[in-house]
């Protein structure tokens, strides 16, 4: 795996960990704004943190990268959908869009390894 892909994996993972730990109060506000339940928020958070961990582990074990990258990308598509549905301003949509693009790159780079 090339170094840019590994860097992208780290950026996605650290971003997810940061948001779901240090910025959790914003996550609570957004999920409430979107009308999603606490259970949904907890399931999404646990899954995203697990996927982020797999992306980091995938630096050493590249076979683990494709599925977490695709699933994380799907979470970012869902985030874009909910931001669109709630008519969020563009600055709120940009982070999940950037992470989505990084996930697409990571997934495509991992396919080239197979």
TrEMBL record:
InterPro entries the record matches: DoxX
One Pfam family recorded for the sequence: DoxX_2
Name this protein carries in UniProt: DoxX-like family protein
Topology in membrane: Multi-pass membrane protein
Keywords from the UniProt entry: Membrane, Transmembrane, Transmembrane helix
GO cellular component, one term: membrane
Major site of localization recorded for this protein: membrane
Membrane-spanning ranges: 6-28, 49-82, 94-113
Cell location: Membrane
Superkingdom of origin organism: Bacteria
